[in-house]
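Below sits my pick:
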Amino acid sequence: MDASTHDRLVAGVSHAALLLSVGYVLALSGRADWPEAAKVAATGFRDMSRLAGGDPELSAGITRTNRDNLLEQLDGISHALARLRRHLEADDGRLVELFEEARAVRERWAKGQ
C-alpha cells in the first residue's frame, strides 16, 4: 500500500474517530446540565470518549498531518449524521434500516471480511 492510500484510509478508520470523540466530549461538556449528566455517564460515554483522553499535542499533530483526507472524511460523516437526523425527525422505518446496515458492516469487519 502506498503512503497516499494509507493516509486516506487511516483518516477514516482512525483519525476521524479521534475527532468524533473530541467533538462528542466537547458538545456534552458544554451543556448546562453536564455536571448532572457526568454523574450518570457510564460505558457508552467511556467508549465514545476514550480517544478524547489522548495526548492533545499528538492528536493535533496527527490530524494536521492528514488534514485534507480528514476533512473529506468529516464531510461524509456529517452527511451520514444529517441523514440519521432526518429519519429520526421523521420517525420513520428507515432509521431502523440504517441501524441494521451499520450493525452488519461492523459485524463483517469484526469477522475479518
Observations:
- The chain has a mean pLDDT of 97.
- DSSP finds six helices and no strands in the chain.
